[in-house]
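Re: duplicated header lines in exported structure tokens

Our pipeline writes sequence and tokens for each protein into one text file. With two proteins the header for the second block appears twice in some exports. Here is an export where it did not happen, for reference. First protein block:
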Amino acid sequence: MEVMARIAIVSRGWWPTVIGGSEKFMYRLGEQLYRLGHEVVGITRRFRGQREPKAIHRLIVMDQRIKAPIVSSYLFSRWAARTVNRIKPDIAIVNSYWGELAPTWISREIKVVSVIHDIGFLESSDRSLGSFIRVYALRKISSRSDAVVVPTSYVRDMMVERLKVDDGKIAVLGFEGVDGPFKPVYVDNGFFDIVHVARFSYNKGQHISIEAFRRIVDDVDRPRLWLVGGKGVKGRDKEYLEDMLSRAESINREYGDDLVNIVVDAEDLDQYYSIADVCVFPSIGEEGYGLTPLECLAYGKPVVISEVFTRTSIVDKDIAYIVPANNPDELAKKILHIYRHLNDARSKALKAMKKISQYSWNRVGEYFDRLIRSL
């Protein structure tokens, strides 16, 4: 097999060590570029107690002990840049979702492509030091990079408007790969299963799913809610997860049954997508794409999604049920509607499944292959 380029892929988190959309993207990208014949090495980290990162290509892993986010991130960025400079690849592709500063220390002789999954945090009221550092980092990264790849025109427009990035440097992917069978999977287990897959973080809206569930639990025969996702990366994410665990315990204690189930860091999502009667994604902000809603549709499942995702253009009312952001009442109404009209909802989901069947990781790899050749 002819080797076409030597590529280093830098990502602070790597699937399945970190369960997240950008981490899965970099994992799949490395896989596809390797299969296209490129020599690929992944550069990432793990903390003690985390599962091992996986790849079909070579991986260089930094074992980190310091967990203070700003300090550990800085140390990883310097180490990752030194590692890239040492192995001297033709090109470095960097997951810059969290403001990864490694590109600023990578030798100018090496081409750099930064992948920026989303910058939705700019829409929040967060004025913390961390937010300021991310803005500074993203500007520095964009200036250093030879190309910046974003998933949607929404993210591009935000970068041009808020970060003053040169529009000509930004490449809009327009899609991401989707994992799934692309055929209807219906498991009749005697329950009406509501599934919400997302990293545990306030912007993902798990609290909205729980509050909506409270409103429908007495009107549905044998309902269950599944909140499935990664721990998150910030201290407040861990506090949020504890709050969700407490709310779930309260409902389960009230009804004397495990109606609300919380699954943390599940590597295999197939079993949860398979049992779902409906998938819900009530995010309240900070979304640049929306990979998990598309994965759910790949199983032929009805999806209720907040209007936040319409900005990213991944869904419209023809393929998903759209509700206002931060509105558990409307989410509950849509869940009840699907429960009472399940066949109609599944018919709508099947149309959606056919539409998204074009979203493959092969196409992602081919897109980056063309970009690498152009550089």
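Second protein block, exported in the same file:
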Amino acid sequence: MTQKLTQRITINDVASAAGVSRQTVSRALNDKGEIDRETKQRVLDAARDLGYRPSRFARGLVRPDTTSIGLVIPDLLNPFFTEVAAAALEAARARGWHVVVYDTADSLEEERGTLQVIGTQVDAVVGYFSLSEAELDEHTRGMPVVLIGRQSPRFSSIRIEGAAGVRSAVDHLVSAGHRRIGMLDYANRADPSDRHAWFCAAMATHGLATDAVTTAAQSVAGGAEALVELLDRHPDVTAVFTFNDIIAIGALRTVRRLGRELAVIGFDGLQLGTVVDPELTSVALDTRRIGALAVEQAARLLAGAEPLAGDDLVVQAVLLLRESA
């Protein structure tokens, strides 16, 4: 079941379950003294069982400045997530919303801790999550949730589609004469990334081997170290595609230090790629659209309007040619 079909529990639902009026539910939840202890406990039990959360958004119909969303980012030091966060903040401010930003340091434990406190602080949650859907549901029951970069049958999600963009990148390298193309994937994963799958599919269309792959930490230093490892194992590589631009910039640093001729293509299309030498060619994502889409979908879910669906929630990556390849 998708979140499109999941209705937020309202005060009317609690009143019906407890067999009392809306006013009685309000008095019980606000700890007013006008009702007896047994009735109050019945209301509290019904609210807990239903997963009811008092809606600051509903109160925002009178006081619009009370609407708050939680923006969950795995690493604010990574410029990609900073760009997405900036776009989401801009879109939220345009609606007069408050935004609380959480940095989970790409840690499941930090993510879990964030979710344990976030439910009482905000009206909706948008961002990046790695926890299971069961855990997400447990901590956000009844609250609108918009996931970014992750497909989910349970929650609304903004999907990143990079297959065509990565294929364009490999096509570009092949047309330039490269036949031994390597990849630097992301190290902090149990399985190869989607970007690795897109790379392998693109290479297969040209009948090229995909054995020259190693993993890198998501940092400039991680990219530099990983390229050294890759070239030690596969010295015949003449071009490399990387999981993201930060890793690619580290790879460029190694290329310059070694004095080698090596084409480098990143993934993300960060503005940071224009200040390195040579400027970084990248499979680019529209970070402004990602952030704005997340906020728009949250707004629709909060308002009970028809949420965006299908292709309206897909952000396509496209090849951005600069100088490094």
